[in-house]
Design goal:
The structure holds two protein chains of two kinds.
Chain A: E1 4-6, E2 11-14, E3 19-25, E4 32-38, E5 45-50, E6 55-57, E7 60-65, E8 70-75, E9 84-91, E10 98-99, E11 103-108
Parallel strand pairs in A: 2-11
Antiparallel strand pairs in A: 1-3, 3-8, 4-5, 4-9, 6-7, 7-8, 9-10, 9-11
Chain B: E1 4-7, E2 10-13, E3 19-25, E4 32-38, E5 45-51, E6 57-58, E7 67-73, E8 76-81, E9 90-96, E10 106-107, E11 111-115
Parallel strand pairs in B: 2-11
Antiparallel strand pairs in B: 1-3, 3-8, 4-5, 4-9, 5-6, 7-8, 9-10, 9-11
């Protein structure tokens, strides 16, 4: 079983829509969780960390469900500039990071 | 925050030649560096972990004789793709793990390798 599983999409949504991505992880002892954004042919950049209590940054909300071992990312009021691939990243132990396959989002005018 | 510099950003080479990719930590010392490979429309896959002063650790299925990793100093890790073939064409990216006061990993800019 993969360490991290993520729906690859693609998600094509109109501007202003709300879209949600989910990701599951296999290691119940995992400690740290992140959402990264990757634009085409570029390195991933941290979008936000995911905390147990859930956290929000502007239009972006991240949630963690330890019992079900999944994390989610909600994007409200989608902008054209949100078009990218969103990577779910889990740090199960030490310095190791595991990446989901990424979910492709295209926001349509 | 910490910066990881990777170069070249893009390289085209002939089949059978070798290509070296460098990854430098600019304002911190990285005893560990991760090397990833990403094929089109796929996620980053860990290839190997380089450790300063010792041998690299390779993931299952990655040929250590083909992908030579050297971590000779605390600020430089290199990946050499030896005898490159077209199937080695990919996006290679390095990453330094978080330090004591950071939580996120830091990525190099990535190298797009095309073998013709």
């Amino acid at each position: 079983r993969k360490e991290v599983e993520q729906d690859p999409g693609p998600f094509n949504v109109p501007e202003g829509a709300t879209v949600a991505f989910n990701c599951t992880y296999s290691n119940s002892a995992s400690q740290s969780f992140f959402w990264y954004r990757q634009d085409c042919r570029k390195e991933p950049k941290l979008l936000m960390s995911v905390y147990s209590s859930g956290n929000e940054d502007g239009r972006f909300t991240a949630q963690l469900n330890r019992a079900s071992q999944y994390i989610s990312l909600l994007i409200r009021d989608s902008k054209l500039s949100d078009s990218a691939t969103y990577l779910c990243v889990v740090n199960p132990r030490g310095n190791q990071f595991y990446f989901g396959t990424g979910t492709s989002l295209t926001v349509i005018p | 925050g910490a910066v990881v510099s990777q170069h070249p950003s893009r390289v085209i080479c002939k089949s059978g030649t070798s290509v070296k990719i460098e990854c430098r930590s600019l304002d911190f010392q990285a005893t560990t560096m991760f090397w990833y490979r990403q094929f089109p429309k796929q996620s980053l896959m860990l290839m190997a972990t380089s450790n300063e002063g010792s041998k690299a650790t390779y993931e299952q299925g990655v040929e250590k004789d083909k992908f030579l990793i050297n971590h000779a100093s605390l600020t430089l890790s290199t990946l050499t793709v030896t005898s490159a073939h077209p199937e080695d064409s990919s996006f290679y990216i390095c990453s330094a793990p978080p330090g004591a006061y950071e939580t996120e990993a830091f990525f190099g800019q990535g190298t797009r390798l095309t073998v013709v």
